[in-house]
């Protein structure tokens, strides 16, 4: 999809923690040998850089951890795994979108992806694209902010 290069150095600076995370990635977003049984919240809590992180920073870190925990040793998601994540972790944004042409186009693009796998950047673009067209986003925009 996009193909931008991620900085291993930048990633290493943010992987300080006490769960045995290596600061030297084998590939840009390759999975670490963290047991799948460690919850995302515990993984987030182990990241020193996020101890005082904003909600937005923690949200992006959560996406990165879910991606990493689900990706293969090369740090990529197979199409089936990506679709499964959309159904299990992103269903409130995708429910009821099946009849929308833009939704169908996005999933067709996923099916036609040349590499048959998504890197983190491609996955983020897919998530953001699905978010923009979702009914849930429209509901979020309509929520009244109370002071």
From TrEMBL:
<dbReference type="GO" id="GO:0005929">
    <property type="term" value="C:cilium"/>
</dbReference>
<dbReference type="InterPro" id="IPR011992">
    <property type="entry name" value="EF-hand-dom_pair"/>
</dbReference>
<dbReference type="GO" id="GO:0046914">
    <property type="term" value="F:transition metal ion binding"/>
</dbReference>
<protein>
    <submittedName>
        <fullName>Sentan, cilia apical structure protein</fullName>
    </submittedName>
</protein>
<feature type="domain" description="S100/CaBP-9k-type calcium binding subdomain">
    <location>
        <begin position="56"/>
        <end position="95"/>
    </location>
</feature>
<dbReference type="GO" id="GO:0005509">
    <property type="term" value="F:calcium ion binding"/>
</dbReference>
<dbReference type="GO" id="GO:0048306">
    <property type="term" value="F:calcium-dependent protein binding"/>
</dbReference>
<dbReference type="InterPro" id="IPR034325">
    <property type="entry name" value="S-100_dom"/>
</dbReference>
<dbReference type="InterPro" id="IPR013787">
    <property type="entry name" value="S100_Ca-bd_sub"/>
</dbReference>
